[in-house]
Amino acid sequence: MKKLFALLVVAALVSFGVTNIQAQDTEDAATEAVESGEATEESAEELEEMEMDMDTTDDDAVATKGFHQVLKEKFIEGNPGFMAIVLLALVLGLALSIERIIYLNLATTNTEKLLESVEGALKKGGIQSAKEICRNTPGPVASIFYQGLDRYDEGLESVEKSIVSYGSVIMGRLERNTSWISLFIALAPMLGFMGTVIGMIGAFDAIERAGDISPQIVANGIKVALLTTVFGLIVAIILQIFYNYIISKIDNLVNEMEDTSITFMDILVKYNAENR
C-alpha cells in the first residue's frame, strides 16, 4: 500500500512538472513571437480590448466617487491654508444660525391658549392668578404679559408703557447674533474673491519665472482662483438660507407679540371696568 501511494505521488510530481514545462515553453514562445514582431492580429485585438477595459474601469472609479470625497479633493486643490478660512466662516455661521433657530423655536408660544388662560385666571383669581399663569409659561409673550400685570396697580397707562418697553428688550434678544451671521454671509464671497486674486497673481508669477505662457504653467493658479471663488459662494448661499429663515421667524414672533399685546390690553381694560 505504501509503495502504491509513493508511486502515485511520483507520478503526480512528474505530471505537474511536465505541465509547468509546457506552460513555460508556451509563454516563452509567445514572448519571442511578440518581440520578433510575429504576433497575430488576434493578439493585437486582445491587447486593445484589455486597454479599453482598463480605461472603462478608471472612468467607473471616477464616476463612483462620493460627493464628500470629490469635495475634499477640490478643497485640498484650492490651497488648504486659504480654504480653511472660508471653512471657518461656514462653521461659525452655522453654529450661530443653529443657536438662533433653537432659541426662536423655544420662544414660540401658543398665544391663543395663553390669552384664554390669562383671561380665565383674571375672572377666577384676579391679577395674582394671571401672573402665576404667565410665570409658568415659557416664551417672550408670557414674559411681556407678566411685566404688564406687575404694573397693573400703577394704572393701565403704566401697563402699556411697560409692555412697549419690555417688548423692545425682547426684540433685541430675538435679534441677537443675527448681525454676526450677516457678517459671515458677506465675508465668505469676499474671501473667495481674494483667493481668486491671489491665484491669478500666482499664475502670472509662474509665467514670469518660466518666460512662457504655457497652459500647464498657469493652470494651477487659475484652478486655485476658481475653487476659492466657488467655495466662498457656496458658504454664502448656505448661510443666506439660514439667515432668511431666522429673520422670517423673528418677524413672525414680533407680529405675534404686537397682536397679542393689543388683545391683552383689551382684556385688562375689560377686567378693570368690571372691578371698579
Indicate the topology.
Layout: H1 2-35, H2 41-63, H3 67-77, H4 80-107, H5 111-135, H6 140-150, H7 156-174, H8 178-210, H9 215-274
Helix pairs in contact: 4-8, 4-9, 5-6, 5-9, 6-7, 6-9, 7-9, 8-9
What amount of the residues lies in strands? under 5%
Q: What is the number of E strands?
A: 0
- Per DSSP, the total helix count is 9
The arrangement of helices and strands along the chain is HHHHHHHHH
Instruction: Give the mean pLDDT.
Output: 75
| Main sheet attributes: strand count, strand direction, barrel closure | none
Instruction: Give the CA-CA distance, first to last residue.
Output: 125 Å
**In angstroms, what is the radius of gyration?**
39 Å
**Unreliable segments of 5+ consecutive residues:** 1-44, 56-63
Helix content: over 70%
Number of domains: 1
Describe the structure.
The protein has 276 residues and is an all-alpha fold. The protein has one domain. Helices cover 88% and strands 0% of the residues. It has helices spanning 2-35, 41-63, 67-77, 80-107, 111-135, 140-150, 156-174, 178-210, 215-274. Helix 4 (80-107) packs parallel to helix 9 (215-274), helix 6 runs antiparallel to helix 7 (156-174) and helix 8 (178-210) packs antiparallel against helix 9. The longest helix is centred in the last third of the chain and has 60 residues, at 215-274. The radius of gyration is 39 Å and the shape is rod-shaped. It starts with a helix and ends with a helix. The model is unreliable at 1-44 and 56-63 (pLDDT under 50).
